[in-house]
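Researcher: If convenient, please comment on what follows.
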Amino acid sequence: MANQEDNFKKVISHAKEYGYVFQSSEIYDGLSAVYDYGQNGTELKKNIREYWWKAMVQLNENIVGLDSAIFMHPTVWKASGHVDAFNDPLIDNKDSKKRYRADVLIEDYVGKLDSKIEKEVKKATKRFGDKFNKEQFLATNPRVVEYKEQGDAILKRMGQSLAKEDLADVKALIDELDIACPMSGSKNWTDVKQFNLMFGTKLGANAESAMDLFLRPETAQGIFVNFLNVQKSGRMKIPFGIAQTGKAFRNEIVARQFIFRMREFEQMEMQFFIQPGTQKEWYDIWKEKRMQWHLSLGLGADNYRFHDHEKLAHYADAAADIEFRFPFGFKELEGIHSRTDFDLASHEKFSSKKLQYFDHETNKNYVPYVLETSIGLDRMFLAVFANSLQEEELENGTTRTVLKLPAVLAPTKAAILPLVKKDGLPDVAHTIIEDLKWDFNVSYDEKDAVGRRYRRQDANGTPFCITVDHQTLEDQTVTIRHRDSMEQERVAIADLKSIIHEAVDMKSWLKKMG
């Protein structure tokens, strides 16, 4: 556990040192669970957003984009159920005075059981070597089976209690499991209470006539209220999807784990409108499609898993998370939800406007069902960044810190380095930049010895370093160094564009989706 914490601390400090993520308003001691993206973080975030958008909108003929407003009519949130039911179960520790989400405390307990299973698997892998059959071991080893059954039973009971709003049983479960406050070790807990997560604000010039509004806690409702506008203006036929990226706001009382759980965050969502009765088929299709998108980035298949929900939201008939192995364990990265006709039917009721689709083939009107895919952009950023940050032992006994970002997402694709600051080498380097900058984000670096510059670019995640030396003046060739392998080769300046393009082109990465 301590090792996990140390690794996570390294991720946070590296993100700051290299201009990826800063604490918001840091010179005023910051604002809890609010972060700013620095010069490199902004580029990485934009590249992840574009990678999602291209796969979701550009490559699907029947999916279009939307950019809805953050402010919406207050009745939207009544219709969506957020005013009445958008709550977190919170519990206070009487000794440490710290507040926690009760469900997270219980999930973290189960996470420790998962860690015990992983330890058993590691021990067995060492013992049996190549003969080790992981699936068989997980299914038959008595200790592993016991941990798994225990974890499943805990999550099932918690899910059922939360669904029934039986908060007394959630508290009883915390007591039975002997869960202590992570800060103080105290087990002196208050009762569990519900807390609404929406931020309120006001619209209007004076206090008397101002309308109470909310900052949107999700981006999905902007899609639902625009369903007919998009369908009619785009002459869309079911099945079709509407995708959107944008900011959402939640008054997280227990915001933690850096950018994993923030009060202001960005979502990438797609709502897919389908014929009632086809939801099971589309649910399976989108689970598969979304996992393929994640795997195309090459972060390692064993870092992902599906987690089917025991506790379903009142509107859903199926829900699963794609979980990722973050530095603090497996946690939700993306949700795939079969939302039935809850959203459109509810907005139809509250607005008294028909939100139906006329099917020309059957000559019938119906309220479409919805299949949702929803991913947190900030969580995706953290998954990519944390997974890419590595300490490597080199053959000469030294170590290097390298940020092995997928080249397609890296903020800077190449750094151009003149070997020395004289003899016309900087001029040639700037000429190369002038040419490459139209296609790629590139940077110039002339400070320090070349070896130190290489290390700096490694830590920054730059896939290529291009060194201009005296031979360049004679034959128009440069040395190109590959971040991951550290291999160097001599290439013509004229070939640089195609070499970089081959490594960073979205098309070749997305084609891995199959």
Notes: The two ends are 37 Å apart (CA to CA).
